[in-house]
Amino acid sequence: MVSPEFLLKVIRSSPEAEEKCNLVNGRFLIELNGQSDGNSERASVKKVLADWYVEHAKEKIAERVERFAQQLGRWPRSIKIKNQKKQWGSCSGNGNVRFNWKIIMTPISVLDYVIVHELCHLLHPHHSPQFWNKVQSIIPDYKKKRDLLKEYNYQMEGIS
User: Fold this and answer.
1) Percent helix, percent strand, percent coil in the chain, to nearest 5
2) What integer best gives the mean pLDDT of the chain?
């Protein structure tokens, strides 16, 4: 499984300008301010790009959570987007759900599986047969999506 690839163009702007990233026609345009050497420029590009993904993840995940929460009749208390080292998502006992921002880099069907998985924990806190039955009622091929996540785990290891 190969993630989509995008071209990356770095543009230098004035030292006062805000550093930002936009996705335009399949190309990331990253505006950096000031002067920097190769190492600090690389770190700046990585940070600006990660910030863009986090913002994009907040919007898309909130939209998808709302859709599936309506199907389940259960809404989370809060939704957080984090840089989790080992998990794609989690659900606390008090109804707070967290998602790894990197999940936004996976196909929408895989993102949906992770969202449904965590929302089903609002109904069934453990991985009981009832939990998996509920997941399957919304994502019939959830096992395939779960297997795909294993491939993405490997691909995402070097991204921070």
Assistant:
1) 50, 20, 30
2) 89
